[in-house]
Design a protein that fits this description.
The chain is mainly β. It contains two helices and ten strands; from the N terminus they run ααββββββββββ. It has a ten-stranded antiparallel barrel. Pfam families: DUF3833 (PF12915).
């Protein structure tokens, strides 16, 4: 009995440490965010990564060249770091599913990423093996992307291990041209 109470308490504590956002809150908020429209063309992004204490680990810029062909959104991302280091190149292929959700793949992503649109927002989740020093850790990314207007979005990512938020990414993106 005592072990069951401890197990329930531990589960509640761990679930309280994760970020949970209700996407239905954004269904009627303007402007509507369309993933394909926003990323079709050149996009510039600026971001930071902070550890769980709030300390800055990375500061970076991303040049994104997006294109849509045959219902597939391709994002060719090139990263440059002014603090820290990380991936230099990532190419996403994203397609909308029959259920109205999204599925995406990239070489450094473990399995498919999945996304759900909520009017003004998109919830995007995936796992990856994140290099840290000489080691690699399988972590879960939970991204919330919100539209400010038709040219600007913000992406807030929560990087989790064992259900705990280990780091957070804040990324601003602006459509170019």
């Amino acid at each position: 009995m005592k072990a069951s109470i401890l197990l329930i308490a531990a589960a509640l504590l761990l679930s309280a440490c994760s970020k949970s956002i209700d996407g239905s809150r954004y269904l009627d908020d303007p402007p509507t965010f369309d993933l394909y429209t926003f990323f079709d063309g050149e996009v510039k992004a600026w971001g930071i990564v902070q550890d769980r204490s709030g300390d800055l680990l990375q500061r970076f810029e991303v040049d994104i060249d997006g294109s849509v062909a045959d219902g597939v959104l391709t994002l060719d991302e090139t990263f440059a770091y002014s603090l820290g280091e990380g991936v230099e190149k990532r190419i996403w292929t994203i397609r909308e599913t029959a259920e109205g959700t999204y599925e995406g793949m990239a070489d450094d992503i473990a399995g498919p990423a999945t996304g759900t649109a909520y009017g003004n927002a998109v919830y995007w989740r995936y796992e990856m093996d994140l290099p840290v020093g000489d080691s690699e850790y399988r972590v879960a990314f939970k991204d919330w992307i919100w539209a400010f207007d038709d040219r600007t979005i913000v992406n807030r990512s929560y990087i989790q291990k064992f259900g705990l938020v280990m780091a957070e990414v804040t990324l601003f993106m602006q459509k170019q041209g």
